[in-house]
Hints:
Blueprint: H1 4-7, E1 11-16, H2 28-40, E2 44-51, E3 70-72, E4 75-80, H3 87-97, E5 101-104, H4 110-119, E6 125-127, H5 135-139, H6 142-154, E7 162-165, H7 168-178, E8 183-186, H8 198-204, E9 210-215, H9 224-233, E10 240-245, H10 251-258, E11 263-264, E12 267-273, H11 280-285, E13 289-292, H12 301-308, E14 313-316, E15 330-333, H13 338-350, H14 353-371, H15 374-387
Parallel strand pairs: 1-2, 1-5, 2-4, 5-6, 6-7, 7-8, 9-10, 9-13, 10-12, 13-14, 14-15
Antiparallel strand pairs: 3-4, 11-12
Helix pairs in contact: 3-4, 9-13, 12-14
Amino acid sequence: MESQGKEKGLKRILICMDWYEPGFKAGGPIRSVANIVNALKDEFEFYVLTSAFDLGETEPYPDIELDQWFDKDGVMIKYMSRGNMKTAAIKGNILEIDPDILYLNSLFSKLYTLVPMTLVKKIPIIIAPRGMLGAGALEIKKVKKSLFLRFTKLMRFYKSVTWHASTTEEEKEIRAAYGSSADIVVAQNIPTAQQLLLEDIIEKRKTGVVRFLFISRIAKKKNLHLAVQALREVKSEQPVEFHIYGNIEDESYFKKIEGHIKDYGNVSIAYKGPLNPALVPTTFLYADYFILPTMHENYGHAIVESWANGCPVIVSKNTPWKGLRVRNLGWDVDITDPKYLLEAVQEAIDLSEDEYLSMVKESYAFFKEKISDKEIIEANRKLFHNAC
C-alpha cells in the first residue's frame, strides 16, 4: 500500500489491538494507544487494525465501514467484522501494509498478538503488556496464565521483541517474567490534555455534598466491592454520594455486590452505567474524590485523569503512584485490611474546606507540571525510532 507517508520517508507502524476508539469499554489501554497515535501521527505513519466491536458488544460501531482502510484525522484504521477476524485476514493485512514496526497492545490476545507474532519474522515488534504481568493481574486465571508464561519463556517466543513498559515498576514485572536480558523501553503513557480551568473546578465543587467517583471496568480486579463496603460504613452529617461508572465486564461479580448499591441514610450509592470518554471531564467537575482500590494498575489512566481535573484520589498501593497523602494528592492504602480504606474515605469526608481545596490545587498542579510533560512524548518517540 503506497502512501504520502512513505513518500515523506515516515516510518510505517501497524498497531494490532482488540479494541480502539470509538470503543471505550476496555478502559485505559485504548486511551494509551490513542494518545500515542494522536501525539506522534505527524512523525510516523500509523495504521490501526482492530475489531469493529466494543468490549462485550455484538453490534459493530455505528457509521463505520467494515473491513476497509480509511483515513481518520491522519490515521489509517480498519475495523474488522466477525467473519473477517481470522488468521488469513491478519496475514493479508500485514502483507498489504508492509510495516516498518509492528506494535501489539496486549500480551495474551490470540488474534491481535499471538497470531501476528507467528506470522512476522523480520519486522521489529514492540509489545505493550499493559499491566498484564502485574501480581494482581496474574492472580486472575492464575493457572492458565502461569502455564502460558512458562511455555512462552521456554520456547523463547518473545526473545526478539522490544517491550514497552509504562513505568519502571512494569519494567521489573517484565524482567521477572522473561528474564534480565529482555529488551525493555520505559515510556510513560501520554496523558489526555487538561480541559478544565482550576477556577471552574473550585467553583463547581461547592455543592454541599461529598461526592466519590468510580470510573473503571467492573471486574474483580478493580475491587469495586471494597469501595462499596467502605462507603456503607462511613459516618457523616452531610450528604455523601458514590457514583459508579463502568462497563460490567464480570456479570457474576457485579451481581454479588449489586444488592449493596443503594441508599444508607444520607449515604447514596448508585450505578450510573458506562461513561463515554468525552464526558469524563464534566463528570469529574462535580466529583470531590476518585476511588479505585484496584488489585493492580501499571499506570491508571483514570487516576491521572482525576488529577488532571483537580480531583484527589483514594487508591490501593498496587499502582505506580505512592506517598500520595504526604504529597497532598490523595491516599494510597493497603487493601489487605478493609479498615485502611474506610479510614481514608472517612478522613476525606472530614477534611476542612481549606484542607480539601489545597488538595484540589495540588492535584491539578501535579498533573500540569509532572505528568503532562514533553519528556514523556519524547520517550514514546524514541520507543519507535529505536525499534527501527
